[in-house]
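Re: weekly structure request thread

Next one in the queue (937 aa):
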Amino acid sequence: MSFQKRHSKLFQAVFITVVAILLITVIRSLYYKASTPDDENLFRTTPGSILVTEQIEGRLFTDEDPNSATTAAETVISVGEIVRSVDGEIFRQLGTLEAYLTGLDSLDELNFQVFDPRDASTRNILVYYGNLPQNAFRGISSSVYVITVFEDGASERAGLRVGDLIVSINEKYFKNMHDADRILKEARSEKKLAYDIIRGKDDLTVEITLATVGLHLPVLVFFFSGLIMMLIGGFIGASRPQFIAARYLGIAYVVTGFFIAFMEAQRTIKDDFVEIRAVFLVVAIFFSISLWLHATHYFPLKHEGLLKRPWIRYVSYALAILAVICTLFVNDRYIPIFLLLLLVYNALVQFIYRKESSPEYNEINSLIKRFNNIAIAGIFLTIAFLVYTHWGSVDRASSKFGYVGIPLALLPISTMYVIGRYNLLDLDLRVRRNIQYSAFSTVLGLLALLAVFWMLAYMPRMDLPLPNIQFQGSFIEITEEPMLTKDRQAMEKGVLMLLAIAFSYLVIRLRRRGQSFIDRKFFRGSYDYRLASRELSEVMSSELDMKGLAEGMVVKLTELMKVKQAAILFYRNETECSASNSTGLSDTDWVRFSEGLDESFINVLKSDPDESHFSVEYLSSKLRDHFSTHGFRHIIAIRSKEKLVGALLIGEKLSESPFHSEDLHFLTSISKQASVAIENSFLYDELAERERLKHELAIARRIQLASLPQHTPVVKGLDIAGISVPALEVGGDYFDYLNGKPDDLTIIVGDVSGKGTSAALYMSKVQGIMRSLYEFGLSPKDLFIRANQLLVGDMEKQSFITALGVSFNPLEQQLRLARAGHAPLYHYQAKEQSVKEWLPKGIGMGLAGSDTFAGEIEETTVPYAEGDIFLLITDGITEAQRDGGEEYGEEKMHQILASANGATAKKIRDSIVSSVNQFTGDAPQHDDLTLVVVKAV
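Done, posted below.
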């Protein structure tokens, strides 16, 4: 996962904080500008204190070599210009200049550098000393020169002009423009300013009445254009921080909007932060272009051609950094050069790699380009119009520049349109249905009202062609003679009343039909709660299994209540979700939603047994976001005898109108009916599950019994009989005959710890391993060692297997015995008429690793004679219990072996089983019972 996706919450918090700070900054700037009385002019510090008071003839100096000016055009130093230097030497006092000029010859040529405050231009003029008139200069105190006077502003109304030198404000003198700003700020509270100015060589006083609100419409237009960009960028970045495209697009809009809004808002603010704001604006203007290029890597879709070339954005940011450095530390005249360079670089990148983007990218981007081209064309047309209407006055044209904000505002608006049209960034920008419904209904009502008002206003002016009706006694006659005025007026009033009633009725009927049509289109039709309840009851009574019940309920609820999403969850034992179903969500979304529900949701449903309805707004933030993301708005708990058995999840109505109290009462009533159906469904499923398990266990029992030896091997010199009876349907005991040769027989009896299904599965595995390993001709000891190697890594820690392995050699009348933690081998010796237990050392398989197991197990050779009987059993024989807990033990088994006389192995086996059953009586079988009897004959 990328850094951006892992830190979306952090980005969101930081982004919102920064946007809020920037918004406060630009709004504060506009408020300061609007609320502070303004003299509505701009000025700068005058670069000199010696004023030219008489016109001086000279020649324009264009090079450091004075001889290059011999052919230059003649010019003059005008009255009102400021002497910056003479022959490269700066003079700050008039007396110093006069001392420098004393004693010069009339043919001596002087290089004057002068500054014209009217157009802020600097020139070098070559002047013969003899051409200097008497009293050509005048010393002035520190001053500022006016660079802009806003059209129709307070300064223009008072007669202030561009180029005027302001030497004092309210008789207070200053050192530079910042000092003048301070004095101006202090004097603004008086609402009136007295500027002592020098215009040309004349001293004047200009009295300015400050504007209470000095805010121009172009400034306001430009400000709101930038504000719209910032708000839309903030919305995109803050609402979808998980998308990289939203981040860069949001940042680009915020930075660009900040530059636009702040540039005009702070333009005439005179405080101590002018330089800081200038730095912010320079950084914003250059980096906004680089950010836009970066945003096109991801928006509207990923541009693979740009993404696989990271150097493209690195170069763009490097150019922006270089532009900022050159602008701030070298010369601000580099601004248009770097702006053009960045714009050209951006355009070339888009053009060169346009074919490496996807068709979907090109389709959406073509629409974005069309909107951009419209906005750019609007910007150029606006600028052209301003230049044309204010030709010859750059300051006046620039003061109207704010109107460019109108076409600029099309950019963020068009972006939101494209996002909404193509559902980009997972943003749903459509107008909600409830708002659409209200709008259409309101418009319909207003149209009906306007129709009635129009008719009421028009009817009195109608010329009704009424017949001349005369009432003569009981007769009504129509004559050619005109009716009396009062009779005609009365008839007209009556006819107008009838027409008004008829027209109003028609309008009402049409409005009802129109409203009915709107209701159908916006799913506002009412439904019969009784009928809906009856239909749901039919569904709940006809479906017995949980799956069918869940599906039937959500489908019918969606159909009746006209909701976008509905779902139902069934909980067994208030913890386990045993069934669920939904409508309005894809299978993938439903699985994702279900996986997101944890124990905390069940705890919420169980927290208040008296509360059946929960709004998702009252859930924890995590759960609330999870439910809202999937469209669910209400939760109805389903309880049976105060026990949670399910939950109804209801989404928003198709009409997008709120749920009313009767809707929630209806859902609560349905939940009570559903509780009975769910309980019945649980019982039905439990019964079906029992039947299924019973059937499957019966099959498993048959399979397990079939896996035991079905035929007793015929081995010369041995009579064999074996049996295994599971305590449950299936068990963990087993025995097997591994008869590789006619004169060789190996018998394995095993017991897996535990009983039931898990023990049976292990038993099957052990049986397969033993049969496979026996093919290698292994002795019982080696057979167990190899089997342990295969089992020890695959068995659960609490499981193990005991086994007894006996390999008979009838020819030599001896056997080899190995025991893996199992019961002993019982040997009835006919000659001694006694029972001996063989118990060689050994531990259960699965309890220890290969080396430990092999070191613990030993193999014993046992001779036998004709008539001897061997008994291999599991502990289910000796530990068989009767009521009261008494165990069968070994003594009775020994007695049966001793009294066997000439009985066959099968009869001995049956005698032992019968003895055990007789001992336990009606007590349930405690453990699996397995035994094998081998008699030497």
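The chain has a mean pLDDT of 82. The CA atoms of residues 135 and 871 lie 145 Å apart.
Next request, please.
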